[in-house]
Automatic annotation (TrEMBL):
Domain Cytochrome b561 bacterial/Ni-hydrogenase as annotated: residue spans: 13-174
UniProt source species: Mesorhizobium denitrificans
Domain of life: Bacteria
Topological relation to the membrane, as annotated: Multi-pass membrane protein
One family name in Pfam for this protein: Ni_hydr_CYTB
GO terms, molecular function: electron transfer activity; heme binding
GO biological process: respiratory electron transport chain
Protein name: Cytochrome B
PANTHER family, per the entry: BLL0597 PROTEIN (PTHR30485:SF2), NI/FE-HYDROGENASE 1 B-TYPE CYTOCHROME SUBUNIT (PTHR30485)
Entry keywords, A to Z: Cell membrane, Membrane, Transmembrane, Transmembrane helix
InterPro entries registered for this protein in UniProt: Cyt_b561_bac/Ni-Hgenase, Di-haem_cyt_TM, Hydrogenase_cytochrome
Broad class of where this protein is predominantly found: membrane
Transmembrane segments: 20-36, 48-67, 101-120, 140-161
UniProt keyword Lyase, yes or no: no
Length: 185
């Protein structure tokens, strides 16, 4: 089997474990949210799965591969604001890994899922079972994440169109178009 020119000019960005994490976390969150009122056991299992995935991702963010490490994509607020302004001006650079806005979204989603899992777990303990603020916080964050997932999907669609690149496909294959001179790291 021969490789096409586009296959040869692609680089591996997302490893198999990162891709499995991404889609497993998405499935866990969707399942937990969708069945939150109908199946408490499945809701809890999905929440525990999400919590375990978050713990794995935190470790991978410190010791994982290049594009997986937080040091590669966590940027200062000023860099994020500058990148968002460049989006509105139509001049944002293409990144091989996460762009500054995408990196901020990763941290936001990890934090939200972590807090949702924590408040969900708290409700199973003797200390916090039936405590109103824990339950209301859990439900509130469960609804907030829907908005942030929507922003995440919108950002992926926008970046895919702006940079002529299928980012959903790259999260399936692990590969992205090789960098050009205009691309950022």
């Amino acid at each position: 089997m021969t490789m096409s020119a586009s296959d040869r000019s692609a680089v591996c960005v997302w490893t198999v474990p990162v891709r499995l994490f991404h889609w497993s976390l998405a499935a866990s969150v969707i399942i937990a949210w969708a069945i939150s009122e109908t199946s408490r056991p499945l809701h809890e299992y999905a929440g525990y799965a999400a919590a375990g995935l978050i713990l794995w991702r935190l470790a991978a963010g410190v010791v994982g591969g290049h594009y997986t490490r937080f040091s590669q994509f966590v940027r200062a607020p000023s860099a994020i604001a500058s990148y968002v302004m460049d989006i509105f001006l139509g001049r944002e650079r293409r990144y091989i890994g996460h762009n500054p806005a995408g990196g901020a979204m990763v941290i936001t989603l990890l934090t939200l899922v972590g807090l949702i899992a924590l408040t969900g777990w708290m409700q199973t303990t003797d200390t916090y079972w039936g405590v109103a603020w824990v339950e209301s916080t859990h439900k509130f964050l469960g609804n907030v994440i829907v908005a942030f997932v929507g922003l995440h999907v919108a950002g992926v669609i926008l970046a895919s169109f702006r940079h002529h690149e299928n980012l959903v496909g790259s999260m399936i294959s692990g590969r992205k178009r090789a960098p050009s001179a205009d691309d950022a790291a």
